[in-house]
Each structure stands twice: as structure tokens, then as C-alpha cells.
Amino acid sequence: MRATYWLMTAVLGLAIAGCGGTDTAPSSSPAPTAVEARQALAPTGKLRVALQLANPLNVTQATPSAEMTGVGFDLGKELAQRLGVSFEPVFYPSVGALLDSSQSAAWDVAFVGFSAARAQQWDFTALHVEVDFGYLIPAGSSISTMDQVDRTAVRIAVQQNSGPDTFFTGTLRNAVVIRASSNPAALEAVASGAADVMGSIKPVLFELSSQLPGSRVLDGRPGIDPHAMAMPKGRGDVAVTYARQYIENAKAEGRVQAAIDRAGVGGVVVAKLQ
Questions:
Q1: Co-location of 112 and 237 in the same domain
Q2: 102 with 234, same domain?
Q3: In sequence order, which residues have a C-beta less than 8 Å from that of residue 170 and are 6 or more positions away?
Q4: How many Cβ atoms sit within 10 Å of the Cβ of residue 116?
Q5: Is residue 161 part of a domain?
Q6: 103-145, pLDDT tens digit by residue?
Q7: Does residue 83 form part of some domain?
Q8: Are 182 and 204 contained in the same domain?
Q9: What is the Cα–Cα distance from 263 to 246, expressed in whole angstroms?
Q10: Taking Cα atoms as reference points, which of 221, 262, 229 lies closest to residue 248?
């Protein structure tokens, strides 16, 4: 993706609004210089972008030799270019593994579901996308509509410690939630008959449905999953200020929508400008 550089002293002097529940940088803070931003966001001299595999909101790859695509992949690569540092993707099999690794300073930024609980552990920008939750059913399922999922004895597989895990556990009243180590493992639970439905965000469901012939994603949406760029706490106001303005510029410039389009992601809309 071709980089478009903006004038640092102009855009970083703007007031920046963050996600609800996060701390915002003081409006009186001086605009960070390019050197300050690089030191704060990429202290190792490269931008390490945490990405969950097999998630088009982060990164996917059709074949081992194919080009990688994904909303987080494209936005992380663009951010590294604007900072003037090398882009280093760091891959994880699950969002739980990704978030756990931040405690060991293994990455600099990540693109994950936002929640008030997560905002206590990581700093966030404003939202860059809003994502539909949904359900995937296998071929021959007796379930045909979304309102048939939350019934006694229906087993729904979700990725453990993920946004969908939190959402479905909190909203389903009758269905049984089965937790798997990753999204592919949740799909395997459906394929093997250990679960009746897979619950996740729709981009993941659409991506994985091709791996289970005859499966389909149900119409409708039981809820919305807000996503934002996260950073380990302790990077300071410079990192948070620059990151928040980067996301607002990426939305305004159409770069978030372009990343969605390039990845072919369904069930996703660009979040409103803050």
C-alpha cells in the first residue's frame, strides 16, 4: 500500500478523541516530533505488529506462497512506513496468546476487539472498525435461523478468551458454550460433531466456511464487536497521541476501507471519525 505522509506538526496538534473508557492524551501536550514518535511506538527500531492468524481483520494467506492480506496487516505496515521504521509482523494462533504476550514486551501495536476490561490493561485508539458477530452452521443442520441458536442442548463453539467468548457467554441463556483454543479448533468442533454451531465475528466465519463444505453463515447479527488498535501501557502520551491520530487519518483517507476491500472482508464497516 502506497504511503501518504502528512505534516506532523499540523495533524498532531489536533485534539484527539479516544475510545470510551480509555485515557485520552492531554490536549495541551506539545505535538510529538517524528523522532519522539518512533522512540515511543517502536523502541526497538522496528514496529512489531501483533497479528492473529486466520483472521482477516488481522492477517490471512490463501496459500504459503500467496501475498498476505488483512486489515491489521495493512494498517500496521502503513504505520511502520509513516514512522520510518521496518515492519515486523508477529503472528499468533489465537487472540489470547497475542494478548498474553504483550506482558513480555513482544509487540508494539495490535488490532483487537475493544472492551472496558481490556482498556485497563492496554492503551487504545478510537475504533477503526465495527464488526458483526454471527453464527456458522454445518451442512444438514436443523438450525436455519439465528433465533434457533439459543436453545437448550445447542452447543456453540467459540475461541477461548476472545471477544466472541465474552459476548456469547454473556448473552446466550440456554445454549451450551464450548471453548476451543483457536478459531480453526472451534470450526473443527463443528466439523466433528462436538458442537452444533460456531460463534465468532463474521469475517472469521466467512473465511473459515470454505474449509467446511456445505456450511453457511446465518443471516442477521446478534451484536457488534468494536475493534481498535492497542498498545502496551507505559509507552507514554507521545505513543498514544500519535497512534490515535494515525487511526483517524487512516479512516479519513480511506485506508481502512481499502484494507477491508483488499482482504475481501464481509460484515465489517469503518468506524466513525472521532
A1: yes
A2: yes
A3: none
A4: 10
A5: yes
A6: 889 999 999 999 999 999 999 999 999 999 999 999 999 999 9
A7: yes
A8: yes
A9: 20
A10: 229
pLDDT confidence tier of residue 11, bands split at 50, 70 and 90: very low
- Give residue 150's domain range: 132-217
The three three-digit cell numbers of residue 175, written as one number: 445454549
For the chain, how many structural domains are there in total? 2
pTM of the predicted model, to two decimals?
Answer: 0.80
How many CA atoms does the CB half-sphere of 184 hold within 13 Å?
9
By the 8 A CB rule, do 181 and 189 touch?
no
Would residue 1 count as lying in a domain? no
Other CB atoms within 10 A of residue 272 CB: 9
What whole-number distance in Å separates Cα of residue 160 and Cα of residue 179? 5
Distances (CA, A) of 70 to 86, 182, 251, 262: 18, 18, 16, 8
Residue 58 inside a domain? The answer is: yes
In this predicted structure, what is the pLDDT of residue 28?
Answer: 52
Residue 175 — pLDDT band, cuts 50, 70, 90?
very high
154 and 46 housed in the same domain: no
Same domain, yes or no: 238 and 120? yes
